[in-house]
Amino acid sequence: FQPKIMAGRKVVLTAGPTFEAIDPVRGITNSSSGKMGYALARALARAGAEVVLVSGPVALPAPAGVRRVSVRGALDMRDAVFAALPGAEVFIGVAAVADYRPQQRAEHKIKKAEGGLELVLTPNPDILAEVAALPNPPFCVGFAAESRELDAYAESKRRAKGLPMLVGNLVQDALGADDNEVVLYDDNGRYPLGRAAKDELARRIVEHLATLLAGGEMR
Ligand code: PMT
What we know:
Layout: E1 10-15, E2 19-21, E3 27-29, H1 35-46, E4 50-55, E5 66-70, H2 74-84, E6 90-93, E7 100-102, E8 121-123, H3 127-132, E9 139-146, H4 150-160, E10 165-170, H5 171-174, E11 179-186, E12 189-197, H6 198-213
Helix pairs in contact: 1-6
Bound molecules: ligand PMT.
């Protein structure tokens, strides 16, 4: 039995990597399996939320009770997020969005030639920063995957984007694994949630989120 602590709330979240096409067969991507974001979507649905999961390409089935919108590149992900936002009280960015995309996508397969190949990359929009900067934004939760100095980098990302809550994890713990170790950051401090299966950590993250939404103090 799980209490419906998110009943009546709509949540939009992103998960997985983005895939930025170079030509019809090649692209650049990040190495996210989607497991953390899908676990969170599942936990939110179990807690009674209406969930829209905007997902990059992953090999996972859509969680029960969740509306999944499948996308490839960061630009598609941004469009799908903004289309889903009306009525959403919460936005969560779990996706590992590629920071850059090829400036041009070749219409046909690029042929192998002598010498090297130069790719010109252009920055992708920061979806979470754009949502957080809306005039009347939903409650925005960020994720930060770092390879060192988690506290310092995670808190600086939270402050830079003006987020009320952020989930920090280490890439070496998080990427592709079934379990993880996370620390939550909000305006009141830092909350280590320990090491556990991603489903269990997702349940703890939803508990913290629901308490903040209800205006409660964390212990
Ligand atoms: O999928 P798994 O294998 O389970 O791995 C989970 C995970 C490690 C991918 C996940 O737990 C995680 O930490 N995701 C965030 C990855 C990250 O470090 O993102 P970032 O530092 O590039 O971005 C910070 C925040 O801004 C994130 O919430 C991200 O979704 C968001 N962002 C970033 C760039 C961008 N262009 N748009 C965004 O919305």
